[in-house]
Amino acid sequence: MNQVILETLFNAHCARLLDEARTMLYDAEEARDVVSELFAELLQRMPDVEPGHELAYLSESVRNRCRNILARKTLTEKVTHLYALEQQTMTGEEETEWLDCLHAFIHTGLTTAQQRVFQLRFGEDKKYREIAAELGISEVAVYKHLVAALTRIKNHFKS
């Protein structure tokens, strides 16, 4: 791709792409890295994109990169990033205390099925299909258990 065209795309869409990445990652620095890496890669190799669909391609690329980052994070990192959204500044001791409370609630406030699905999804980073096969349930049931678990966790820590 022509460097001038790429610079034009960068100038036109960078702010929006950064917002999308920040929304998914809750981390401005990681968001900048995602967008910068995308454009650096595009400078080397730009796939054929139908004219007028550049923003859609860039947005989807950013979302995919963010999903890949999130998939690699551990449960602790995911939970810590979720609560960073609330702009709470916790000391290391407060964060440890909060994570201990979370783990305790997972073991006492969730059903056995919700605990198992939650652990397989976030602790072992398994896909819905893998969880369903391992537990002998449908992917829809996996989804429902996760939604119920996350809703209970969210409601518990709101109050």
Task: Tell me what the structure shows.
This protein is mostly helical and 159 residues long. It folds into two domains: 70 residues, Rna Polymerase Sigma Factor, Chain: A; 84 residues, Orthogonal Bundle (Arc Repressor Mutant, subunit A), CATH 1.10.10. It is 80% helix and 0% strand. The chain has eight helices and no strands. α1 packs across α3 and α5 crosses α8.
Sheet-strand content, in percent, reads under 5%
User: From the 3D coordinates, which CATH architecture of the largest domain would you assign?
Assistant: Orthogonal Bundle
Largest beta-sheet characterization: none
SSE class = mainly alpha
Mean pLDDT: 82
Uncertain residue ranges? none
How would you briefly describe this protein structure?
The protein has 159 residues and is mainly α.
